[in-house]
Design goal:
It contains 19 helices and 20 strands. By secondary structure, it is α+β, with helices and mostly antiparallel strands. The structure holds flavin-adenine dinucleotide (FAD) and 2-acetamido-2-deoxy-beta-D-glucopyranose (3 copies). One 2-acetamido-2-deoxy-beta-D-glucopyranose binds next to loops.
């Protein structure tokens, strides 16, 4: 099949798909593969028997926990090089009852972009790694970035094109994929000054469950609201690219990293750090890595050391930051410097390779009331002294992120949030894991009185299936996921916005084609659901 005909074919499939059953009860894998082979170049489809299947599958897996002999693998991996291939995958998938999982950077904490919890699920992976262009419009300070780019590639391109004048407020780890990151929020060191990544998204191109390419105006305001933080991941469609607003940064930024041990009073210094909030300028972000018997305070300041030091002396003298600790560099250098270490360079932002040696488990909390110093002391003595203990990463909120109203985007952790806690634990190839996972669960239970309540909030990008999983109602694969059951985890991630997300889902994908263990369930009123079942009754008797 010649490539040039593929988009014409894709269009005719869109037409026919209106008349085909929603999702046949029995997936027809052979017909699906046949359909793909007719609509896109064969060398972009890797079945389990292709020699490169495993290397493509593993290429962006970040947690080896989901690369074992028992991990449920996709029927095939589709690696689109053109939007029309993404459309074709959706159209073939719907016709032949094969669901899709979308992968951009593969950093999902539960591996939902490339594996399933259910052994019987037949699914294909659409891996967007080849759709990764970044185009900067320096005249309007905006950019279009494809989902398959990493945030490191985005940062590098922005700095190059703007001569270090512009930046983008998103996460710290350069290998994170733009696709997953922007769909769940995107917290990074510029969040106090400029908000989250989603607060700076101005348009997007998305392939919906009918295989259409929609933008901000054609998808409608409810869906455009939903994809900016609603964990679009497997819920609303496949986002091909995002238009983002770039933000100004000074040519020189300052950073310091200061560790205080428990013996040096880390508990008291942490207690003070929690309450700095508005005492610090929004140009200053200080995160804390709490591990073993110490707390490491790492900062980014949009200004020089000469400006930063007096601010630190006045607001946070307990930390004892002085000129020796402070380093100046460009913003684009600060990301690898802080995340990868002092010898890393801006070019390291382009390195997509990471090691597959570290197994991990994570979960999260938001803190709205300062945690007493005595509790911090107990955290050091009772929890971080254990040999199997892990890490807490504390990201301060406030500033621009806190000013956005709770319902303006699906991300509800806004005004009143002091900081986010990410709990992580690690183990290696040589086994282990049981003690580390037990530690994280027990520590999470211990923290309950000190963190947000009703609901206990969690960050969707730090996905944790232990918070709850979807329940499919009705006829097996033809059923839809239950809204009531989804509330268990959904209200932790989205609070009151969960209902509106479920309504947006019903608008764009009422048949629940895009779904996974934690996708947004469609909220369909009873009558509509009965009608829909009647219309497709023949498909469900198979
Ligand atoms: C080492 C590490 C560091 C991290 N640091 C930060 C940080 O500093 N700040 C922060 O906010 N988060 C951070 N995260 C979390 C990160 O933001 C999320 O894991 C994010 O979802 C990863 O995006 P991805 O594209 O790499 O993941 P993927 O695994 O590819 O996708 C994640 C989810 O989104 C879906 N998805 C992916 N692409 C698309 C698309 N184009 N359209 C629709 N759905 C899609 C997937 O199906 C999956 O459900 C970190 C994660 C790791 C592993
Ligand atoms: C995708 O295909 C269409 C139609 O064949 C073409 O116009 C477009 O330039 C292609 N895009 C890319 C990124 O190759
Ligand atoms: C900065 O503080 C450290 C202790 O944290 C100290 O060793 C160093 O001498 C100080 N440097 C200056 C220039 O005061
Ligand atoms: C890319 O990163 C990997 C993992 O950290 C490292 O082993 C490799 O040397 C890096 N490659 C380059 C070209 O720097």
């Amino acid at each position: 099949m010649a490539l040039s005909r593929s988009s014409k074919l894709a269009l005719s499939f869109i037409f026919f798909s209106c008349f085909s059953p929603v999702i046949p009860s029995l997936a027809s894998s052979d017909d699906f593969l046949q359909c793909l082979s007719e609509t896109m170049p064969n060398n972009l489809v890797f079945t389990q028997s292709s020699p490169s299947f495993t290397s493509i599958l593993v290429s962006s897996i970040r947690n080896p926990k989901f690369f074992t002999p028992t991990t449920v693998r996709p029927l095939c991996i589709v690696t689109p090089t053109n939007a029309s291939h993404v459309q074709a995958a959706v159209i073939c998938g719907r016709r032949h009852g094969v669901r899709l999982r979308v992968r951009s950077g593969g950093h999902d904490y539960e591996g939902l972009s490339y594996r399933s919890e259910r052994a019987e699920e037949v699914f294909a992976v659409v891996d967007l790694a080849s759709l990764r262009s970044v185009s900067i419009d320096a005249a309007t300070d905006t950019a279009w970035v494809d989902s398959g780019a990493t945030i490191g590639e985005l940062y590098y391109a922005i700095a190059k094109a703007s001569g270090d004048r512009l930046a983008f407020p998103a996460g710290l780890c350069p290998t994170i994929g733009v696709g997953g990151h922007l769909s769940g929020g995107g917290m990074g060191m510029l969040l106090r000054k400029y908000g989250l990544a989603i607060d700076n998204v101005i348009d997007a191109k998305m392939v919906d469950a009918e295989g259409r390419i929609l933008d901000k105006s054609s998808m409608g305001s409810d869906v455009f609201w939903a994809i900016r933080g609603g964990g679009v991941g497997g819920s609303f469609g496949i986002v091909l690219s995002w238009q983002v607003k770039l933000v100004p940064v000074p040519p020189t930024v300052a950073t310091f990293s200061v560790r205080k041990s428990a013996a040096e009073g880390a508990a008291g210094i942490l207690a003070k750090w929690q309450e700095l909030g508005d005492l610090l300028p929004e140009e200053l972000f200080i995160r804390v890595l709490v591990q073993k018997q110490g707390a490491n305070f790492q900062s980014l300041y949009l200004g020089t050391c000469a400006e930063l030091l007096p601010v630190m002396r006045a607001a946070f003298p307990e930390l004892g930051v002085n000129a020796t600790h402070c380093k100046e560099m460009t913003w684009v250098q600060s990301v690898p410097y802080i995340y990868l270490g002092a010898t890393a360079t801006a070019e390291d932002l382009l390195n997509r390779t990471t090691s597959l040696d570290t197994f991990s488990k994570a979960t999260s909390d938001y803190v709205r009331q300062p945690i007493p110093e005595a509790v911090w002391a107990e955290i050091f003595t009772a929890w971080l002294a254990k040999p199997e203990s892990g890490l807490m990463i504390l990201d301060p909120f406030g500033g621009a992120t806190g000013r956005v109203p709770e319902c303006s985007t699906p991300f509800p952790h806004r005004g009143g949030v002091l900081y986010n806690i990410q709990y992580m634990n690690f183990w290696g190839k040589d086994g282990g894991g049981t003690a580390q996972v037990k530690w994280i669960k027990e520590f999470y239970a211990f923290m309950e009185p000190y963190v947000s309540k009703d609901p206990r909030e969690a960050y969707v990008n730090y996905r944790d299936l232990d918070l709850g999983q979807n329940v499919v109602l009705g006829d097996g694969d033809d059923g839809v996921t239950s809204y009531e059951d989804g509330k268990v985890w959904g209200e932790k991630y989205y609070k009151g916005n969960f209902e509106r997300l479920a309504m947006a889902k019903a608008e764009i994908d009422p048949d629940d084609y895009f779904r996974n263990e934690q996708s947004i369930p469609p909220l369909i009123c009873e009558k509509k659901q009965t009608l829909r079942k009647a219309a497709h009754g023949h498909a469900q008797t198979v």
